[in-house]
Design goal:
Elements lengths: L2 H20 L6 H19 L42 E4 L9 E7 L2 E7 L5 E8 L7 E8 L6 E7 L4 E5 L4 E2 L2
Antiparallel strand pairs: 1-2, 2-3, 3-4, 5-6, 6-7, 7-8
Helix pairs in contact: 1-2
């Protein structure tokens, strides 16, 4: 048994003893409280993870907790705002490219799927945009894949209506 489990069991045992002392008024309810307290304690002890929690060992040191602020190691070089004005819910980078090919990514939001290319100078170039014929559709996620026969890239998108669409950026159409 780990030290944290020992601390939890010791804490539970102390609570059980305190509840027995508190209910020793002679009303006969102490037996009922013993069984319910013991069963509750055992359920709590068995459902806890093995990860030690803070506060079990008491306070460690004095003073305020120091929070470290990390500096971000990147800076914004460019951003894109799409014309539909709705939130972007998903983005995925095509990881199936070969060395030397440009970085391509897709974003989804509202009823649109947009494919961009990240250029070497940090600019973002719009390659393609697809709009679902249903204005009520709202795409939430996208994922890149490829056709195992032809090797051409594919983008799978899904949204509010529960329809998964497979888009082919090479054929410029919805495949499935």
């Amino acid at each position: 048994m780990s030290d944290s489990e020992d601390n939890v069991l010791n804490l539970c045992t102390k609570k059980a003893r305190m509840s027995l002392v508190a209910n020793a008024d002679g009303s006969g309810d102490d037996q009922d409280d013993k069984s319910s307290t013991a069963s509750t304690i055992m359920e709590d002890a068995s459902s806890r993870s093995d990860t030690p929690t803070q506060g079990v060992g008491g306070r460690r040191g004095r003073g305020r907790n120091k929070k470290w602020r990390t500096k971000l190691q990147f800076k914004c070089t460019n951003f894109v705002k799409e014309d539909h004005g709705q939130p972007i819910f998903g983005i995925d980078v095509n990881k199936n490219t070969k060395d030397g090919e440009p970085i391509v990514f897709a974003s989804v939001g509202h009823n649109r799927v947009t494919i961009y290319e990240l250029q070497e100078n940090g600019k973002i170039k719009l390659l393609q945009a697809y709009a679902d014929p249903c204005a009520d559709e709202n795409f939430y996620c996208c994922a890149w894949s490829f056709d195992d026969v032809t090797g051409q890239p594919l983008v799978a998108v899904a949204g509010l209506r529960g329809i998964i669409r497979i888009l082919s950026p090479i054929a410029l159409c919805c495949v499935k």
